[in-house]
Structure of Orotidine-5'-phosphate decarboxylase:
Amino acid sequence: MISRQYLVDQIKQKKSFLCVGLDTDVEKIPEFLKAYPDPIFEFNKRIIDATRDLCISYKPNAAFYEKHGVSGLQSLIATWKYLPADCLNIIDAKRGDMGNTSGMYAKAFFDESAAGMSFDAITLSPYMGHDAVSPYLEYKDKWVIILALTSSAGSKDFQYLTTEHGFLYEAVIQKANTWANADRIMYVVGATKSTEFTNIRKYAPDNFLLVPGVGAQGGSLADVCHYGMNKDCGLIVNASRSIIYASNGQDFAEAARAEALKIQQEMQAELEKAGII
Amino acid sequence: MISRQYLVDQIKQKKSFLCVGLDTDVEKIPEFLKAYPDPIFEFNKRIIDATRDLCISYKPNAAFYEKHGVSGLQSLIATWKYLPADCLNIIDAKRGDMGNTSGMYAKAFFDESAAGMSFDAITLSPYMGHDAVSPYLEYKDKWVIILALTSSAGSKDFQYLTTEHGFLYEAVIQKANTWANADRIMYVVGATKSTEFTNIRKYAPDNFLLVPGVGAQGGSLADVCHYGMNKDCGLIVNASRSIIYASNGQDFAEAARAEALKIQQEMQAELEKAGII
């Protein structure tokens, strides 16, 4: 189990709060890998081998595997089995359904005896309220990561609506805080809105925030740290495409490592600046 | 392709607006089916055979299949292949992610060449806004069914927040109406809130509404019709457990048919009362 304290310790030890997003698209991986029986797993395996000392988390995006049906699911299961035990292994699935159904999804992703996988954490959509979250919280050694403020253009459609509890994304955080504490819940906060971190930290001072959108999606790591870091770091910053597709040649794993190292070094500087290490 | 007009014609012809929810739980199916190589598919096949003339739609719930990993996905694909072409075949997946990722999910469920399935419609969560929906709308012969007001207890957490555009669920409908019209978008509206249908019909006079929660979840069909029906019917009412688990003996398919027939007859009476047939 990856407890909050273990995660903080890993961040200090690895001097990194990087999550490598395994959004593995078979159309973007190096051609030579296609000779292997499971090219997606082969790609992920080499990315993991090349980056595991530089990151504290991996995050396969379920859609990229589901797209390939049975073989995609087999690649996902093989990838899960290969993920390092010292990392927070997140399935980015953004599920959100009523209680009975959420219980089934929780089994799929948290109970190895069901579908062959047991991730440490899952991303969830809050629209259906506590039903959509509570069945996952019954797994006492697992995390839920709830969408609050996302980084794509569509986030403006609803997340910034003004409600009786502030913006919708603020209402989500305030309500979800009543379901479990910062040892069990993280929030997704899009990095293109760095100044909003101040706002979010009012309601979620201790929670870890999973931050997509640094790198290919355009956010600034310095801004994220300036506004979003807390005394335990409290940030997991994801980069996917900028790392995993740094090269599409024979050297893709080395190129991925070089890119991850660059980010890790920036993160180390931020952790030092904040006095965390 | 199931166009809006075709769906209306099917409703008139079958005198039914019933959707049979294939929430197939291997722990609840008759014991004797477990001797078959794919018990879940075998169950679904017999339920479909017993009900296809009484309903206009089937809706497998993705979670129930994902729970079983590779074999569950194989059951889902086999079920999709067996679904009748004259029915609106919905995958109840409640996905909702940024554009790039939504495009992958759309392939998984809409493009047979990707994962072996091509459903007519998918349920989607609106939290991430238009990104979460637009990639599915690129499939011109497919429907999206967006969560508006759900029927479980958690719906109160956010869907009833008051925003500058009314309740959140009303804001969702008003915004989603700008993405596509009633030929492409349906909304999920929970049947335990019948009086809210009046409200929803203000914003979605022509859209079909997918109504879960009649039967096991406790909604009243008469109320749903009184408040929610439009001149084309405009309703697809789902029943899952009350039909598929009507018996767990050798007679489960006959019992499912009897239950579906009872609902179909109630629906016929409502359609006659409304002058639609």
